[in-house]
Each structure stands twice: as structure tokens, then as C-alpha cells.
Amino acid sequence: MFNGKKPLVLAVVVALAAGAAYYFWPAADQAAGAQAGQRPGPGGQRAGGGPRAGGPGAAMNPWTMPVPVRVVTAQSNDLKVQLKAIGTVTPLNTVLVQSRVSGPLAEVLFKEGQFAEKGQLLARIDPAEYQVALDQAIGQKEQNQAQLKSAEQDLERFAKLKEQNTIAQQQYNQQQALVNQYKGALKSNQAAIDAAKLQLSYTQIHAPISGRLGLRQVDAGNLVQANSSTGLVSITQTSPIAVAFTIPETQLQMVLDAVRAGETLTVEAWDRAEQLMLAKGTLTTLDNQIDTATGTLKLKAEFSNSAQELFPNQFVNVRLNVAERKGAVTIPQDAVQYGSEGTYVYMIEDNKAQVRNLVLGTVDNGQIEIKQGLKAGEQVVLEGLDRLRPGREVEVLVRDQQAVEPVKKAPQQAAQRPKA
């Protein structure tokens, strides 16, 4: 039947059967072998008549080993109730320095970007034209003073002649009117002198407020026009300074309750990344109406800004402290998990993870208030949460924020694995 090739065919069939038995061993033996770290030999028999040490098994399976976790203890702390908003640094005063008289700009006495004190001399307009006007007014006054003196002397003579009845009363009255006329002219002359002096003083341009100077708009030598819209330079008050921000109307009642109680609400200005607090000030102003388009109310806080931490038009993150919770139970916000049934944390009971549902409250600098679900002193899992499930065995590596060096068991077990 096999034409003399029967022994060869039988050998091939036996070899295939042995290979199939070796690789396709029963599921029960496969599970048992995986747990004991054994691998069956050909024909379903374990090699060497017993278990083979050192094979891959459950002892090194990361899905069955205890999960290393770090835990923290719930603390009882005083917690701030804060409202967060986005704000803009706003100067209390901004002034465009303009010339009040026309003329050549003779001298610029400031540097761009420097701080100027109120009353500091910033620039000078050529005063020649206004000095001439002043001299002319002074000369006119002196002329009228001489005329007045002559008229008064004549009046004295007329008075004596009138007593002697040598002149008419009308002539005496006319001389009296002339004297009064010259006295009035002197007052007008004095007013003209004061106006000329005022115009002359305008040729020296002083800083109207204290603050930081901007960029120069006109160079020396140019003809400056009075009240020009471009001005010479702008001054921005930087100390004190304000921050304007908005809050939603749903949070307005908390602010109003605190303001009506006479409390001074503190406001913190943080940088764009909310990693650094730039300055701390106080709430000074609430707008008189809610913006119907956005449903928000504008507020303004004032900061001393003595160290120039805040810069005009700078973007800041605002934290408005409206209240303080005494003795609140708090944990790090990162320990809280969110699921379909609400918020929860993992607790450790008998070295196993258990779920505890929570009712959350206020958040303050990474700490969150626990209204229900935890007591002070209880421990919750902070790190290692991604592999946890209820009932999963855990290995605590950090307790009460004190680090304990984790024992690297896997490399040691690999080194101690017996050779086959």
C-alpha cells in the first residue's frame, strides 16, 4: 500500500502528533502551568516528570501583583472661599501731556520710560515771543500809572479851587472821573501782565501727575501747536494701580453679603500660568449694573504696586477672597476621581482599595474641601490611581507625605529565578 515507504510516513505522523501535543495542551493544564510557572513537555507530559522552575508565571505578572500607591491624610485646615476671574491691570490715571502754547520746542528734559514726579520739568518751548508780550503789558501799565499820577495831582488842585469857588463843580467832577478811569486802566494792565506771565509759564511743561513716561511723540526743534492731539508724551500712574475684572451674577450674592457686612475683601493677582502670585490688594468698587449681554458684573481692586509687580494693561488671573471656612476637611485636589455616580476617592482598608463617595466644596491652592464622605485623619490614595479598582490589593509607598523608597522586587526576583 505504501510502496515500501511505510516506515517514513509513520515517522512523520508521530512527529506531527508529538508537536501538536506539545503546543496545544489542554486549557486546564495551560492555566495550571501558568500559575505554577511550568510548561508541559511533548505529549502533554511535564518535562522532567515534574514542574519546571523559572518559567513565566503569576509571580511576575504585573496585573496580579499589589499596586504600589502613595497616600495622603485628610487634614483639618482653614480654607479660603475664592472666586476666580480674569482681569486686566488698569492705571488709576493716564495723562497725555500737551503744550498749552504754540512755539518751537526748545528742549526735551526727560527720558522715555523713566518715572516722573508730579511737577517735574519735562520740556521747554521757546519763551521769546511770550516774554515780549509780557514786557509790552508791563510798559502799558507803567504808562497808565504816570497818567494816573498826573490826573490825581490835578484833582488835588481842583479840590482847592473848588473850595475857593473859582472853578465849576462840573470841572471838578470831570477830573474825578478821569482819575477813576486811569485806575480802571491800571487794573486792566495788571490783568494783561498776569495773562502774559501765565502764557510765559506755559512754555515750561511740567508733569501733571506722578507716573511712568511713555515714548516721546515730538523731538526738540519742531514747531509745537497748542493742544495738539498727539501731545508730547503720555504719563501712566503705576502706584497705586487697579485691576478690573468681572464675576458672573450667580456669584454676586456672596460678594454683596461680605461688602454689606463691612468686610474688606482681599484680591490676589496671579500670573498667566497661575504659578506665581504677583500682588495682593483690596476690592474697592462694584459697578452699578449687571451687563445683560454677558450676565456679569464689573469689579475693580486697588493694589499699592510699590515694587512695580503689575504693569498697565497686563493680563492677570484674579482670586477674590470672599470668606474663610474654619476647620474644613481638605485633601489634595488630584486625589479626587470623577465617575458616573459622582466624585469619589480610593481608601485603603486591609491593604485593599475601596471606593468612598464624596460631596465636594471649595478649592483653595490645590486643596479641596470635603463636605461629606471623609473625616480628618483618614487616608486616601494620591498616586497610582490608574490601576486601581475596588478590592485590588495595594502596597503603600508613601504615608503622611513622608517618602519611603520603594523596594524594587521585580529585578531581584528575576535575579533569583532558578535556572532550568
Query: How big a fraction of the residues is strand?
Result: 25-35%
Shape: elongated
Straight-line N-to-C gap: 46 Å
* Radius of gyration, in angstroms, nearest whole number: 47 Å
Number of helices: 6
Structural class: alpha+beta
The arrangement of helices and strands along the chain is HHEEEEEEHHEEEEEHEEEEEEEEEEEEH
**Largest pleated sheet:** 6 strands, antiparallel, barrel
Provide the spatial order of strands within the biggest beta sheet: 2-11-14-13-12-15
Q: Which residues form runs of ≥5 with pLDDT under 50?
A: 1-5, 17-55, 400-420
Q: Count all strands and give the number.
A: 23
What would the average pLDDT be, to the nearest integer?
82
Considering DSSP H and I runs of 4 or more, what fraction of the residues is helical? 25-40%
Walk me through what this model shows:
With 420 residues, the chain is an alpha+beta fold. The chain has helices at 6-23, 27-36, 128-163, 169-201, 252-260, 409-416; strands spanning 67-73, 75-91, 94-97, 103-108, 115-116, 121-125, 204-206, 211-213, 223-224, 233-236, 241-248, 266-270, 277-286, 296-303, 315-332, 337-339, 342-349, 352-357, 359-364, 367-372, 379-383, 394-399, 402-403. Strand 17 (342-349) and strand 18 form a beta hairpin. Helix 3 runs antiparallel to helix 4 (169-201). The longest helix has 36 residues, at 128-163. It is elongated, with a radius of gyration of 47 Å.
